[in-house]
């Protein structure tokens, strides 16, 4: 049997597939966002990278040092319209018209349905739905004004394909992402702008420490047990690595996907079949 571990998979080569593009990415401090940012830079894109932190994360600092002419960082709160508007203006001022949006900023919550509060609901919907929609809207307005035949990639999740007892709010937000992706694709098709999504499965990111701890508390599991269980349940036999999303993210941003829109691509090791 072949070794399917992430370490056995060589780094994807660069083919300059995004040379001449300006990609704006949110949620880039670590995990999927940081990995896709590195992939876009390798493929030749100039990148405006946005995250909540006032200072860039260690991983992002390393990329800033490696790609000083291609990358700049913009602290952004996607729950505030003034912060979103400032992001789009600053990104355009630095690298010109945005041609690719990788809409990734998100947060997570879990808990028994009967114990969820309005504050729990507001927190996850503010980032995952309201934030994602208004970032997309602001970038799309700019693309239309600039006459850009751009590409938008919204990050959904396999959680948006089905409900889960302890993850009602998160599942609902990711289902909304899939729906907004379809609606935006239809609205933007006359402008030549393509809008697609990616639905990752269980990906071994820093957020999984929080997810695992929440399940440990609510399901009475030992720390690390939920992570072990979900990895074993994946048909390909392991949790995904953030780099497993790079290929799909580059493909949907490139001309290789020029006749694809309104789709949400599952990248989940076979967890969801559609």
From TrEMBL:
InterPro entries named in the record: KR_dom (IPR057326), NAD(P)-bd_dom_sf (IPR036291), Sc_DH/Rdtase_CS (IPR020904), SDR_fam (IPR002347)
PROSITE patterns per UniProt: ADH_SHORT
Ketoreductase domain sequence ranges: 21-201
Major enzyme class: oxidoreductase
Record flagged with keyword RNA-binding: no
Enzyme Commission number(s) of this protein: 1.1.1.14
Domain of life assignment: Bacteria
An example molecular function term from Gene Ontology annotations: L-iditol 2-dehydrogenase (NAD+) activity
Keywords on record: Oxidoreductase
Name listed for the protein in its UniProt record: L-iditol 2-dehydrogenase
Species, as recorded: Pseudaquabacterium rugosum
